[in-house]
Amino acid sequence: MNIPEYAELHCISNFTFLRGASHPEELMARARELGYRALAITDECSVAGVVRAWEAAREHGMHLIVGAEFRLEDGPKLVALARDRSGYNSLCRVITRGRRAADKGEYRLSRADFADGLPGCWVLWVPEEIIAAETAQWVRGQFGERARIAAEWLGEPGREARFAQLQAISRAMHIPVVASGDVHMHVRGRRALQDMLTAIRLRTPLMQAGYHLYPNGERHLRRRERLAEIYPAEWLAESVRLAQACTFRLDELSYEYPEELVPAGETPASHLRKLTEKGMKTRWPAGVDERIRAQIERELALIEQRRYEPFFLTVHDVVSFARSRGILCQGRGSAANSAVCYCLGITEVDPARQPMVFERFISAERNEPPDIDVDFEHERREEVIQYIYEKYGRARAALAATVISYRPRSAIRDVGRALGLATAQIENLANAMQWWDGSKVGEERLREAGVDPQSPVIRKLIVLVNELIGFPRHLSQHVGGFVIARHSLDELVPVENAAMPERTVIQWDKDDLESLGLLKVDVLGLGMLTMIRRALDMVNGFRGTNWTMATLPGEDPRVYEMIQRADTMGVFQVESRAQMAMLPRFRPRNFYDLVIEVAIVRPGPIQGDMVHPYLRRRSGEEPVEYPSEAIRSVLERTLGVPIFQEQAMQIAVVAAGFTPGEADQLRRAMAAWRKRGGMEKFERKLIDGMRANGYSEQFARQIYRQLQGFGEYGFPESHAASFALLVYVSAWLKCHEPAAFCAALLNSQPMGFYQPSQLVQDARRHGVEVRPADVAASDWDCTLERTATEPALRLGLRLVKGFNAEAAARIAAARARQPFLDVTDLVERAGLSRQEVDALAAGGALASLAGNRHRVRWQVAGVEEAMPLLGRPRFQEGEPLLRAPTEAENLLADYARLGLTLGRHPLALLRERLRGLGFLTAAELAETSDGSTVRVAGLVINRQRPGTAKGVIFMTLEDETGHANLILWRKVAERQRRVMLGARLLGVTGVLQHKHGVLHVVAGRLEDHSRLIGSLLTRSRDFH
After folding, report:
1. Which of 237, 650, 736, 943 could form a disulfide bond with 1022, CB atoms 3.0-4.6 angstroms apart?
2. How far apart are CA 223 and CA 62, in angstroms?
3. Sign of the C-alpha dihedral, residues 849, 855, 858, 862?
4. DSSP type of residue 715
5. 783-785 and 770-771: which strand pairing?
6. How far apart are the two ends of the chain, measured CA to CA in Å?
7. Is 732 helix (H, G, I), strand (E, B) or coil?
8. pLDDT single digits (tens) 744-779
């Protein structure tokens, strides 16, 4: 039998969110398997999935057609297919028009929006059940010879009659008919999932979805034999003719950089050179070293060769704007490998301090744009974002998207609701899953949640959830990746509204942009920059100094001594359990040690077995040897161990004969191989190249294994250097200005590993006087107050749960005019609502006006509402003799409203009880010998499970004397999972490890003693 050829022209993927039931990659692979000539991805008013489809099409040798489906408000259902680049431009413009006219996730289009006839596109009209002649006339008149009628038979009765109607309207209106399939899934087996997606989309139980569900599973990629039985041969042939006429390919897209930053009479190259020369004089006022000047000249030549000058000028302009507004910013990542970026002020990493690997940033051998990441204060990043929008306009600038996909918990919640499970049962099932449980829901976790996995409903849930995991749920906005175009951005990619006001996003995410080689400028938010700016402002205002990040004293021995003790709570990058355990062993002594410290406690070096060899060599336990001088030149600064991505690239060049561009391809393969593979093609070349240059097979394979480790996230040296600067600055502030350091951290929450309670306790242990939140003295933010010696830290009203900044501003303004007499005076002059004054009373912030909490409650209850004409009535009432709250009552109230207490620690009140149970304090652990069996109890303040830890859980307990660090091996954690995850006050029996100045308790038995703290509201930062 001669099977007719066919091209599917109407197919949606799961990027038509909650309609399509297959990934673009699955559709492409199946179309290739069925022998289709082409496949069009026509997601509804979207091209969000076409880049992934394009990559799959290249892999399978398929012809991809880019298109979109539209449902017009006043007209028919249309499918548009881009024939050429002009058609693609038309498609993107109309998608943008529809998306910008509606709220996020929606679109609105009418016939008027197609007035230009969608030039360059085939347009398929998909008739409804009743074929309207008027609609046919509009389609013919609007799209002319590019119009087609889509014949889609999906198992309904009356096929012959339907086709006869289509033939008649075709002859009458001179619109040819083409076969298509309204495909929603790659195989029929996805029908149950497609039904589930419909129920989720409609927010209705599956059993009530009724006629909203399709009657059968025909909306899949059908075999050509079956299609030949359904459709006339000429309709099938027409699908192939249309497909052959669609010649547009995504790799035709080329990016043009904005150029308006170039002054009249200058070229981009000449202007960039002038700015670089100016920056050189600022950076090196005494003159530039010849090595650095040669590096700059080499970079400028390569930038000019690739015509990247407008990109550098664009980033320079953004950074200049931020600095003009006093917004701290810091370039990092691959940009820090550029001496030109250093001259332009984009990065603070001095090229004189380390070798530069510019091919990590720009390579003449790859046609990809550079990547520059700039961190800005997270609370002021919006100013930078709006500056970009204002400068380039909404038509030329937008954020990249982020595809939010289903994970186990979200899939359980949506499928559970669609199956009609009770809310409490759904939450119980979802909370049974943790991120390390993998990407599938197993029966064991459901049993732990008290559910029978053999129940028919639960079995169905398991199957559907596991199919749904990984499906895209919706588009969100990237954290800061901006795409800026020279002309209209919507000719490159559609633009739509974000959920946040004054934000627009494109329909592609960062991986899509990278696949197509399109520019993205990362305008990122970093909480530590906010904290540092706040702290420096406080210190300078209090002491009359003028410190900046650049002028703080460098290489301070006291700072390094503090870091060596792992006294780093709140310090950037070195406050995690893993870092605190490493610091006493590593003992950083200078800035470059911090660079290594930041990079070495990462999945890449850990998985590549680089950490322990480095530590042994650093301590002199193992000799440092190099197989050649070439290897020495690359690895000498890290004692013969490759720790940074740049070193991996350099080894490939000097030892295996790679070109710089090939070395960068190796870097990209290292970054992606865990997800998509791709390292294998470099293995032979690397090992053969090293052997040809005289290196042993054993050494070559050791290097290859270490490079594979970078697939688990290895740091570039330039990135580590950028972060090391922030480590030093934040550590200097903690060491020399602990009050300002803590205040700035509290004012910048949420960030870091620790809650405000732990930060305040740490400050008090460092001798800082901490004063309570008080309407008579507090602002919204935490502030410094003068004492006879060092500054005291006054807690701000921001810590009072349920209070707000506007009310705090009114309090401060009224207090500046005259101190408050009593609670009534405060309420009147600050204009406080009942809710606001109740929050202050509960938070203890009215104590200076009314005494203890019970008296405050009484006084607040007596404050009458103001009357329109008479104002607020005043009465002289006798005050009852109310007992003062107990210490426990105050403590519970403090934690409930402030999240901390300035009184005694909760466990100080329970110490007698805990001693009776045999529990030591955290401080007593330090006096106990290594290897002892110990019992310790504390409030759980964090739980961590690093991806490199092979299932090990790290926990930190807090008591009145400090912290106890726990290690839970996988079997222990799994066996006692419920207690481990649920206990607020945890008791542990285990073995004490006391090595290198670091204490750990290796847990054996866990006990939940949360009942002892009753309703005390404690918080733990878990698995973040």
Report:
1. 943
2. 16
3. negative
4. P
5. unpaired
6. 60
7. helix
8. 999 999 888 899 999 999 999 999 999 999 999 999
